[in-house]
């Protein structure tokens, strides 16, 4: 469980998150809000990519400020732009990178690479240059690179924003099928219809915290 205790976040004199307290336990949680409302900043707090200026973020009792490394083992992060996440030139190398860092054995790296490529229909792309993948394939590779590290929770920051409809559907199906808990920031309301909980941000505060069935119409009205 992720426990957010009276968290505020400022950059210099600008406050972007204000006094947020939440317990995140549900399997699928959406983060909604206008541009600049603080979604990305909030998402980045959840695995210690950003640290709160005030308050605490606890992941199963681990404080992101003190236990960043252990927190990142539990909470994986998928960026909006997979180009920010894919660091190696060849698909297989990119998948292996994170696992090598965690000292997975060669056999295990091989097994997990095979498994994840098969899952996303990318077995033929094992030796393919990552920069030549389509946008959807890149995002699936970025998600795969996080999954092979076996996090318990995956935080995603607008993972479909750069994708066309077909690839958005592919990534949506991939998200749907994940066993892990997912916390997803998005502007795509269809993506989160079947989620368990939706948090709507406005000017750094959570102004709606409800089921998507209730939160989506309230958010639409707020944006009208
Ligand atoms: N590193 C930073 N330094 C200064 N200000 C920042 C930084 N990162 C974000 N901000 C500011 O914090 C506010 C919230 O940004 P954030 O990216 O969290 O919003 P968002 O809801 O994710 O927006 P979008 O939907 O456009 O991605 C914005 O006003 C942004 O300019």
UniProtKB/TrEMBL annotation:
Pfam entry (one): ABC_tran
Secreted as a keyword of this entry, yes or no, is no
Q: Does the record carry DNA-binding as a key word?
A: no
The ABC transporter domain extends over 2-224
* Alphabetical list of InterPro entries matching this protein: AAA+_ATPase (IPR003593), ABC_transporter-like_ATP-bd (IPR003439), ABC_transporter-like_CS (IPR017871), ABC_transpr_CbiO/EcfA_su (IPR015856), ECF_ABC_transporter_ATP-bd (IPR050095), P-loop_NTPase (IPR027417)
* Keywords of this entry: ATP-binding, Nucleotide-binding, Transport
Q: Which GO terms describe its cellular component?
A: ATP-binding cassette (ABC) transporter complex
Q: Which GO terms describe its molecular function?
A: ATP binding; ATP hydrolysis activity; ATPase-coupled transmembrane transporter activity
Q: What protein family is recorded?
A: Belongs to the ABC transporter superfamily.
Record protein name field: Biotin transport system ATP-binding protein
Task: Give the organism, scientific name.
Answer: Salinihabitans flavidus
């Amino acid at each position: 469980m992720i426990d957010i205790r009276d968290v505020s976040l400022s950059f210099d004199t600008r406050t972007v998150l204000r006094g947020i307290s939440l317990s995140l336990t549900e399997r699928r949680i959406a983060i909604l809000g206008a541009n600049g409302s603080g979604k990305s900043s909030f998402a980045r707090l959840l695995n210690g990519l950003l640290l709160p200026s005030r308050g605490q973020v606890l992941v199963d009792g681990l404080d992101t400020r003190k236990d960043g490394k252990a927190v990142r083992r539990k909470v994986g992060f998928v960026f909006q732009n997979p180009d920010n996440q894919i660091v190696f030139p060849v698909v297989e190398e990119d998948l292996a990178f994170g696992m090598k860092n965690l000292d997975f054995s060669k056999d295990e790296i091989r097994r997990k690479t095979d498994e994840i490529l098969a899952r996303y229909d990318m077995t033929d792309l094992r030796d393919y240059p990552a920069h030549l993948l389509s946008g959807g394939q890149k995002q699936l590779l970025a998600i795969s690179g996080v999954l092979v590290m076996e996090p318990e929770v995956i935080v995603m920051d607008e993972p479909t924003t750069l994708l066309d409809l077909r690839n958005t559907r592919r990534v949506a199906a991939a998200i749907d099928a994940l066993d892990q808990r997912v916390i997803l920031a998005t502007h795509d309301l269809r993506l989160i219809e079947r989620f368990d909980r939706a948090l709507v941000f406005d000017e750094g505060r959570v102004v709606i915290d409800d089921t998507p069935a209730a939160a989506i119409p309230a958010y639409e009205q707020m944006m009208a």
